[in-house]
Amino acid sequence: MKYNRILLKLSGESLMGSQQYGIDEKRLNEYAGQIHEAARMGIQVSIVIGGGNIFRGLSGTAKGVDRVKGDQMGMLATVINSLALSSALSAIGQRNRVYTAVRMEPIGEFYSKWKAIQSLERGEVVIIAGGTGNPFFTTDTASALRGIELEADVMLKGTRVDGIYTADPEKDPTATKFQSISFEDVYERGLKIMDLTATTLCKENNLPIVVFDMDTVGNLKKVVEGEDIGTLVHL
Questions:
Q1: Mind listing the domains of the chain with CATH numbers?
Q2: Chain centroid to CA 215: how far?
Q3: In terms of C-beta density within 10 A (0-12 exposed, 13-18 middle, 19 or more buried), how is residue 188 classed?
Q4: Contact 136/190 with Cβ under 8 angstroms?
């Protein structure tokens, strides 16, 4: 197995599936199945989910919502998504635990590195909700932070695109895919795989990132087994 402990970043938007809003049950169950498969292989799986399918702080700010309150609303949206994934995992027999970056027992346990690592070592899937717990930080940054804290081997960024391209492949048919790319090249080319804070955290702490298509069932297993899919971002 290529990786022992992973941090899987899922976007809230991906949970919408073909819907315009909210959580698509089919997509949720597909994700749960892939995560369960990885856990059964002995991979220690931690997960951070965004909240953009329910509420995004920045878009709220554009409509007059206070930025701090907007970001807090976004954090709560990630908690809803985390609980949904937890429920889907439990339904197929996968033990899991939800941790939250701000206190909200009994919805989830207050996050600490040590408790989360103990959960991982017991074979539980760890879902970390609430972003970093602070406004002005994205869930990408939360993923980088938690991946580093939990000493993950890699951050796996599950998207609807099968890697990083020279341009947006949905808009530019001539865009070509990178098999691997350095953090420096990401900066120089201005590629927006994550926000700059998250990318810099990963670079400074040598946490590689694999961007891959999570929407294709079976891809998570392929990535953790070391198959050459997606794009690897490295030092």
A1: 5-234 (3.40.1160.10)
A2: 13
A3: exposed
A4: no
Q: Kindly state the DSSP code that residue 229 receives in the 8-state scheme.
A: -
109 in Cβ contact with 166 (< 8 Å):
no
CA 189/CA 163 separation, integer angstroms: 15
User: Would strands 231-234 and 180-182 be described as parallel, antiparallel, or unpaired?
Assistant: parallel
Residues 6+ apart with CB under 8 A from 123: 39, 44, 95
pTM for this predicted structure: 0.95
pLDDT in tens, 99-138: 999 999 999 999 999 999 999 999 999 999 999 999 999 9
81 within 8 A of 14, measured Cβ to Cβ: no
User: Residue 200: what are its φ and ψ, rounded to 5°?
Assistant: -65, -40
Could you say which DSSP state residue 135 is in?
T
**What is the C-alpha radius of gyration for the chain, rounded to an integer number of angstroms?**
17
- pLDDT higher than threshold 80 for residue 60: no
